[in-house]
Amino acid sequence: MTDRSAARVAAVNKAKSEPLVLLADDDPTVRLLATRALSAAGFRVHAVGDGALAITAFDQLQPDCVIVDVQMPEIDGLAVCRHVRQSDRPNVPILVLTGQEDVESLHRAYDAGATDFVNKPMRWPVLPYRLQYLLRSAALTDELRISRHRTQTLLDGMPDQMFVLDSRGMLIEEVNRSETGGSATFLLGSGRCIEDILPPDVARVARENLHVVLATGQPQTFEFQTESGRRSSEVRFLAQPSGKVLTIVRDVSQRYHAEERIRHLAYFDGVTGLPNRQLFVRELRRAMRQGKRQGRLVAVLYVDLDRFKRINDTLGHSVGDALLKSVANRLAEGVRPTDYVAKAGDADNMAVQLARLGGDEFVALLTDIGSHDQIGVVVDRIRTSLTAPFSYEGRQFVITPSIGVAVYPADGNDVETLLMHADTAMYQAKDAGRNTVRFYEKAMNARALDRLDLEDALRIAIEKQELRLFYQPKFSLETEMVTGAEALLRWQHPERGWISPAQFIPLAEETGLIVPLGAWVIEEACRTLRSWQNGPLADLKVAINLSAEQVARTNVAELVLQSLWRNGLRPQQLELEITESLLMRDIDTAKAMLCTLKDAGVSLAIDDFGTGYSSLSYLRQFPLDSLKIDRSFVLNLHNDPDDAAICAAIIAMAKKLGLKTVAEGIELEQQRQFLRAAGCDEGQGYLFARPMAANDLQELLQMPRLRRGTHDE
Ligand code: C2E
Ligand code: MG
Ligand code: MG
Questions:
Q1: Whose Cα sits closest to atom 21 in ligand 1?
Q2: Whose CA is nearest to atom 3 of ligand 1?
Q3: 637-685, pLDDT tens digit by residue?
Q4: 271, pLDDT greater than 50
Q5: Measured from the CA of 469, which atom of ligand 1 is nearest?
Q6: Which of 600, 502, 513, 592 is nearest to 545 (CA)?
Q7: Model confidence at 183, in pLDDT bands (50, 70, 90)?
Q8: Ligand (nearest to CA of 505)
Q9: What's the pLDDT score for residue 488?
C-alpha cells in the first residue's frame, strides 16, 4: 500500500472514529505485518495469538470487525466465528485468513459464520481496503436489517392482515402477524387456498377478483361478512411484480355497522322499529310490479288509531310512543303468517308486511293474494289484535283502529293512487264512526274531493275576508248583567251557506291555515273593541279562542300584545280561551306564553273543561283566571244526577283554586237555577243570547237593563 492510499482509508476511518479490529493469528509475523498495514490506514488493532484470547477480547472490547486465522492450535478460527455469531453482536463482520489450498476449511468457515476470506500469504497493503469494504457492506446490511425490522414492526402493528397469494390462489406467505386483526385471522394457514378458508359464495367472489387483478394488474377490492353477519371484512388484492398477489384484509365491521345503522335510520321508524314510509313505498312499488307479472292482487290496509292524537296531546309523547310501540307489537303478532294462512284455508304465499307511515298511521301491505277473502282475514286479525285494552303505568287505554283498504289493480295502478285511495277509505271509516273498516269505492273519491274543495275555499275565504266574528255575551248568574263576550268565527260560504267553526277549525289546523286564520281573529277582535271605545261597550271584555295548533306554530303572545297596542287597547279588555290539550302539548312553551300574557294583564280561561284530561291539580301550575264548564255537562244537568254532581264538583274545586266558573250552553231555566245554586259565577247560552254580529251586540247592550230571555235572536 502506498502512503497516499493508506492515507485515504485513514481519512475515512478517522471520520468513523477509527474502527477497532480484532486480529487473531498464531503466526507472530502475520500479526506484525497486518497490524502495521491496518494502523497505517487508521484502524485501531488489537492482536491476539490464539482463539481463547480472541473470544475474551471480542467480548470485552466490542471490536467493529474480526480478522481470524482459520487454523490455530486448540481453539481455532471456526470456534471464534461461531462464538461471534452466537454473541449479542452477531452481525460483526468476520474476515478469515486461510491457506492457499485449503478449500475445505473455507467451506467450514462460511458455515461457521465467516463474512469473507483472504488467502495467506497476502499482500498486506490490500488488507485495509478489503476491510473497509467489508465494514461498509456490514453497515449497509445493518441499516437494511434495522429498516426491515421497523417495517415489520409497523406491518405487525397494523390492524390489517396481509399475506401473499400465488396465481393459483394458494396462500404462500404471511406478510404480517397482526395482533388486532381479529376477523381475518381465520384466513391464515399456509398451504391452503381461497376455497379452503372462505365460505363458497365469498370464495367465488374472491376468485373472480383474483382473476381480474392477475389479468389487468389493477387493484381489486371486495367486502364480505361472516355468516353470523357480526363481522365484516374488506379485502384488497394488489398485483406484485412477481406475478403474486398481495392481499390485505381489513376489519370494517365498525364502518359496516355504522352504515347499517344509517340505513336503518333512513328506512325504519325509530319508535316502533317498523319500516318507514320510504321503505314501504319501495316495497309497495316492487310488490305491484310482481303482482302485475304474476296476475296477483296486492292490498294496502291503512290503519289509523282513533283518538290517538288525544292521548298524545294530553298525556305527552312518552306515553304516546310507548303505546305506539305496543300497538306495533300487537299488529306484528296479529299478522304473523302461520296464523292467517291457516285461517285463510288457502295454501298459498300471501305475505303481510307492516310499516308505520308516521303519527298514528300504520299500514299493512298484502302481497300475493289469491282472493279478496284473504284480505278480510287480515283485517279481522288486525282488529282483534287491538281489542284488549293497552295498559301503561297503571292506566288502561282502549285503542280502536279505522281501516281503509285499497286493492291493486282495481283501485289504483300506481303507488300514489293506491295509497291515496286507501287513505280516502280510511277517512270514510273514521267518518262512519271509527273502529270501522272501509274498502275503497269510486264514490268515495268524490267525497274526498269535497274535502279538498273545502280546503281551497277556506284558503280563498281567508284571502277574501269572507270570515266574520260573531259575539256571544256572557252573563253574571247573580246579577244577570253582561260580563263580557266571546268572539266566535263564522264563515259564510258563497254556495254552502254558513259553515260551523267546529267543521272548519279542525281543517284549518290540519292544513296550517290556522296560522293566518288565528292571526286574523286576534286582529279583528281588537279592531272591533277599538270601534266600541267611545260607546257604552267601552269596558266590555272580549274573549278569543286559541287553538293548540295555532299556539304550536306561532308566537301568540307577541301577536296578541301587538294587536292590543296597535289598537290602543288595555290588555285587561282581552281574555283568551284555551283548551287543556294546548297546555298538555308542550308544557314549558305553554307556561311561558301564558305567563307573558298574564303579566301583561290579559285574562286566561280554560275552555271546554271536562272533555280532556281534566285534572284541576294539574291546572294549578298555570296562571288561569276562569274555567268554562263544557256544554255537554250542562246539557242534561236537569235530568241526569251524574252530570249535576260533576258540575257541582267542578264548581266547588275551581273555587278552591280561586278560579271563576263559567257554564257554557245554558238553554233552560232549570239549568241556570241549578248552576246558580251550585255557585257558578257566569253563564253563556241561548237562554241569554246567541252569538251575534258586533252591531247587534252593540244595540243589545245599549238597553238600559239587560235581562235574560229578552235578547234571543
Ligand atoms: P267554544 O269555544 O266552546 O264555543 C262555544 C260554542 O257553543 C259556540 O259554537 C257557541 O255558538 C255554542 N253555544 C253557545 N251557547 C249555546 C247553547 O246554548 N246551545 C248550543 N247548542 N250551543 C251553544 P260555535 O260558534 O259553533 O263554535 C264551536 C267551536 O269552534 C268553539 O267552541 C271553539 O272551540 C271553536 N271556535 C270558534 N271560533 C273560534 C276561533 O276564532 N278560533 C278558534 N281557535 N276556535 C274557534
Ligand atoms: Mg270558547
Ligand atoms: Mg267551549
A1: 665
A2: 608
A3: 888 888 898 899 899 989 988 999 999 999 999 999 999 999 999 999 9
A4: yes
A5: 41
A6: 502
A7: very low
A8: 1
A9: 97
Residues of the chain with CATH 3.30.70.270: 272-440
Residue 191 — pLDDT band, cuts 50, 70, 90? low
Query: Mutual orientation of helices 308-315 and 317-334 as an angle, nearest 10°?
Result: 150
Is the C-beta atom of 489 inside 6 A of ligand 1? yes
The owner of cell 459464520 is: 113
Ligand nearest to the CA of 474: 1
Q: Which CATH class is domain 455-503+514-701?
A: alpha beta
Q: Which amino acid is at 297?
A: L
What average pLDDT does the segment 606-619 reach? 75
Shortest-distance ligand to the CA of residue 518: 1
Q: Are the C-beta atoms of 193 and 168 separated by less than 8 Å?
A: yes
- Has this prediction a pTM greater than 0.85? no
Does ligand 1 have an atom closer than 6 angstroms to the CB of 488? Answer: yes
Site to substitute for ligand 1 among 503, 545, 667, most atoms within 8 A of C-beta: 545
pLDDT digits (tens, 9 = 90+) for 511-558: 788 999 999 999 999 999 999 988 878 889 999 999 988 988 889 999
Q: Tell me which CATH code domain 158-256 carries.
A: 3.30.450.20
Question: If you search the block for the grid coordinates 286559541, which residue do you land on?
Answer: 546
What is d(CA 298, CA 267) in angstroms, rounded to the nearest whole number? 21
State mean pLDDT over 88-112: 88
Class of domain 12-153 as given by CATH: alpha beta
- Answer yes or no: is the C-beta of 575 below 6 A from any ligand 1 atom: no
| 460 CA to centre of ligand 2 in angstroms | 25
Angle between helices 277-294 and 415-431 (to 10 degrees): 110
506 Cα–ligand 2 center, Å: 14
Whether the Cβ atoms of residue 344 and residue 374 lie closer than 8 Å to each other: yes
Distance in Å, CA 68 to ligand 3 centroid = 115
Backbone angles phi, psi at 695, to 5 degrees: -60, -40
Q: Which ligand is closest in space to the CA of residue 605?
A: 2
Q: Which CATH superfamily is domain 272-440 in?
A: Reverse transcriptase/Diguanylate cyclase domain (3.30.70.270)
